[in-house]
Amino acid sequence: MSARIIDGKDFASKLRARVAAEVARVVAASGRKPGLAVVLVGEDPASSVYVRSKGKATLAAGMESFEHRLSADVAEDELIALVDRLNADPAVDGILVQLPLPRHIDERRVITRIDPDKDVDGFHPVNAGRLATGLPGFVPCTPLGCLMLLKDVHPNLSGLDAVVIGRSNIVGKPMGQLLLAESCTVTMTHSRTRDLFAHVARADIVVAAVGIPGFVKADWIKPGASVIDVGINRTDAGLVGDVDPTVADVAGAITPVPGGVGPMTIAVLMRNTLVSAARREGVSLDD
Ligand code: NDP
Engineered SS bond to 242: which of 104, 116, 210, 269, CB 3.0-4.6 Å? Predict the structure, then answer.
């Protein structure tokens, strides 16, 4: 048996098209374009590439992109002052500070300074709390993108056994919360988990967010399970995921790397920015 390959690239481009259509409605109703401010500190090459792609996607969705590039040695208070200005700026619906920040800057202070209602990355503890307690807020883009792909395969996730491998604040933990909210029975696993494969073997749904190339093996997987590979690992062999490619021989559905979860992240960021603008303007959205 060979798994259905979940085409994240195609799903993301359709999502972006839906977002662009809804942006046009918000513009017509409010008379202004939704705006996303992206702050980049320093010149880390990977971060620069991400920031450029986010800016391009924002413009392509018909929204306003505000890019702020600060030098690597900027004072923490200067960055905080910029966040304060963006919080107060009515043209800005979403604020994203590209991580990681240089070591002399306290990342937590910066993230918690962002107005939770403009925190389209969903990293502010207020949004983590809203997710955990079932209140509307912003959910981190990567796990929300994973959930959208999963729901395309399983429109009703209720009662399914889900195992999340990894417990980071930006992927693993919010992924677990999202699956719990869908009434899955969720097992969170991490580097201290004993007999990881025994947990994975019971799962109908496996989400791997570990950061180790090819970590999840085919003989761990229950035949027919759905496997979401969040990993993006740069190796000599190119870009590879956290899931061994032979898992596709056992799973029922699987996301490829590249072309699975990766393209979803920016598409969901566009959606979160649209949602923020619609809320602020009192415009209701289709989905
Ligand atoms: P982190 O390094 O923050 O977290 C990795 C998690 O994996 C930790 O919770 C860690 O456990 C766990 N882990 C490490 N080793 C093992 C092990 N041997 N067994 C079980 N669990 C283990 O990574 P992120 O969550 O930020 O990212 C994970 C992957 O997803 C990376 O490859 C990253 O590049 C990718 N990524 C992709 C995105 C996308 O857009 N597609 C966006 C964000 C990330 P512990 O907590 O105990 O240390």
Answer: 210
